[in-house]
Amino acid sequence: MKPMVLIIAAAMALAALVSPVSPAYAEPYGSGWYGEIQAVYERDDNISRTYKRDKVSDNVAYISIGGGYSRKHGDRAQLILSAYLAQSKHDEYDALDSMALSLGADYTFQLNTDYNVSWYKIKLQATHFKFKDSDPREGVQLEADLSFNKRLTLAATGRIGYRIKDYVFVGKSGAEEANDAAFDTSSQEIYLGADYQFRTQATFFAEYVFRHGDILSTVAGLVPWWRRNYDARTPDRAFEKPCTAPCVASYAYRTRGNTNLVTLGFGFPFRKVNIDVTASHYKSKGDNSETYKDTFYKVGLLWNF
User: 279-289: per-residue pLDDT in tens?
Assistant: First the structure.
C-alpha cells in the first residue's frame, strides 16, 4: 500500500473508533495514564538536504503509537513521562524507512494560578533510530528544551524557547564512528511561536526558529578540492538509484552553519481526532558559504485516549 492510502485508512479507522457523544478535544492533562496514536503524511521537496543540482523530493508517511503517565503536583505543576514507537515509510528512497523508540519527560510549572499567568516548560527526550538500509544514520537523538509561555489574549498564547540537540552513536566501533562521522551532529536553536484558538476550537499557529549547528547535506560525487570546507564526509547510498557503470557515488557532508525555519499551520478537532495541516520552509547556509532550501507540507492526525 502507498503511504497516502495508509494515512487515509488510518483516518477512517480513528474516526470509526470515536463515539459521536465524546468530547471534541482530548489532551493528556490531569493525573493518570493516557495514550496516543498519530499518523502523518509529508511532502518533502529536498529530502537529501542538498544543493539545487542534486535536489530530490519524496513523500513520507509516519505512524506512531505511545503514551505515558501524567502527574499533577498541586495547581501549579505537572510532570509527564512518555514513550512512543514510530515507523516511517518513504515512496522513493526506502533505504530511509525507519523505526524509532522515544522516551521523554516533560515538566510544566507556573508561579501562581492567575488566568494570564506565565508558565515554563522543561522537556528532555531521547530517540533511538533504526533504518532499513542506512546504517551510518543509526543513532540516538538527545534533546533538551526550555520554554517560556504566556497567554497574550483570551484566544492567543505566545512562547519563546531554547533547544539543544545532539545525535550520538551507540554500539558502533571506533572505525564505524569515524566512517559515519558526517551523521554525528549537534545544534542549538532559539524559537518564537504563537497560537490563536477560534471559538470553534480550531487553532492557527506559527513559529520561527533560528538554528546554529551542524548542517548535513548529501551530494552526488566528491566535492572539488577548492570547495572542501567541511568537517566530515561519509559515503551515503540512501539516495543512489540503480545504474549501469560508470555510477556516481553519493556522499553526506557535514559543516557548521545557520538555519532559518518558518512554520505555519492550522489545526482543528473532529470528535476526538485532532487534525492539523502545516507548511514549513527553511534556508541553511554553511560556513563554506553553500546554501540550500527546503519546503515541506504535512497533514497529521492525532487521537488521544
Answer: 999 999 988 78
Residue 17 has pLDDT above 50, yes or no: no
Res. 245 pLDDT band, cuts 50 70 90: low
Residue 43: inside a domain: yes
Cell numbers describing residue 178: 569515524
CATH number, domain at 116? Answer: 2.40.160.40
Residue 69 maps to a domain: yes
Amino acid at 262: V
Average pLDDT over every residue of 8-19: 39
Q: How many domains does the chain have?
A: 1
Q: What is the pLDDT of residue 29?
A: 57
Q: Identify whether 236 is part of a domain.
A: no
Confidence at residue 202, expressed as pLDDT on a 0 to 100 scale = 95
Average pLDDT, the chain: 87
For 286, the domain range is 3-214+256-304
Kindly state the average pLDDT of the residues 247-254.
86
Position 228 in a domain: no
